[in-house]
Amino acid sequence: MLIIDEAARAPEDIQLRKYYVYILIDPREDDRWKGIFYVGKGQGDRLNAHDEDGSAAKNELIAEIGNNKVIRRVVGSYSTEAEAYAVESVLIDFVFGRSLVNDGKLTNIQAGHNHRYVRPRGNYEELENLDIARRIGERVTGFISKIFNKLLENDIPALADDVIDQLNLIMANNQINGVILPIKRPGIREHGRFWGADVHFANETNVILRIQFTAKSIQTPMRAIDENTRIGRQNFTMQMVGLNIKPMNDGHYAWFREGWKGGVGSLPYQREGKTLYFSEYDALIKRITDVADALQNSRIQLINAT
After folding, report:
1. What is the pTM assigned to this prediction?
2. Phi, psi (rounded to 5 degrees) for 105
3. What's CA 142's distance to the chain center, in Å?
């Protein structure tokens, strides 16, 4: 096991840089390159803290090898965290790939930091954010343009892509995507007021759950699928009334729970004394499954009543 102990160094030693990128290797592979099964970024003793955290696949492999037998090597050290993140992301997403996607070899669950700006392993097509600029698809004008510019300044489109990718991955791995359909790539919503993605539910023709990103938080209103027509809003309103939920703004949207108005990440909404932030995927999954369960139970009751 590699020991990183700053206190044990002699005063005249040149200190290691604060951040580093490292790999975990299965010693049973004679070809060390083939034995690499995890890439990470860390500082201090992070390199040795891998016997219980992270993916189940990684933990099972470490247990099989024996924690003390895993080969741990730093592949680069850096003065800034941004440098370390950049190298980690290139190694995870372009060089090795994750076993969960693109037939990669790594047991990492999450893609690298800012992976939207790194070419995926094995993909040599012309790509947005790399070879060409991402197309918005809608002209944003007037006072909303100030709101929209805030979204761009905070890199919300890339953050939203990461969040939705992770939600889809979690739902697929937990086999809860039968009732909840895969969430499509986020895009502009309400003419630039939000960046968001719509969660569609199987056999549901009136209601979606929108995951909408502001510059600082996520909000999750239920919305009419066809909110631009009166009949669409009327159908949505009737379904909300059936769920004992108050429709808002002439049937355009509703809040499944009163506390959801504060959004995920904004200070007014707290759960068990803990503010929820962008990366708290479990909280978002809980919201999605709560709505899915309510809609499904409502359909069953309607079928039984007839």
Report:
1. 0.70
2. -110, -15
3. 31
